[in-house]
Write a structure and sequence with these properties.
With 110 residues, the protein is α/β, with parallel strands linked by helices. It has helices spanning 14-28, 51-62, 71-76, 93-102, and strands at residues 2-7, 32-37, 66-70, 89-91, 105-109.
Length: 110
């Protein structure tokens, strides 16, 4: 199964922790998983303020997690996603719709 998890909550929140645990469980079960960060979730890209959480995402990426960030939301928060390296793939609303259409399941943890 291929799944997309949408996360709009920022690092350190209960919803974010729940989303990352859900992603880990799905990866452990052998599913293909993509995580799409939007709204406050883009703050995971800010390695200065979310270093611990970013390290957790790096570990999940090592397990096969594909991570996307809505570049428009990041820009609205003064963040440059290009400086985050290869961990995140920039995305748009159009790429979000394409991702959701390509998945068997979409989970929104808002």
């Amino acid at each position: 199964m291929k799944a997309a998890v949408l996360l709009k909550s920022g690092p350190g929140t209960d919803n974010a922790e729940r989303a990352l645990q859900t992603v880990r469980d799905m990866l452990d079960a052998g599913h293909g998983v993509s995580l799409f960060l939007l709204q406050e979730g883009v703050r995971f890209c800010d390695t200065k303020t979310a270093r611990t959480e970013a390290e957790g995402l790096e570990a999940l990426a090592g397990m096969g997690l594909d991570i996307h960030v809505l570049t428009r939301d990041a820009a609205l928060r003064g963040m440059n996603t290009e400086s985050t390296g290869n961990l995140f793939t920039g995305g748009s609303y159009e790429s979000l719709v394409d991702l959701m259409a390509s998945c068997d399941r979409v989970v929104g943890i808002l």
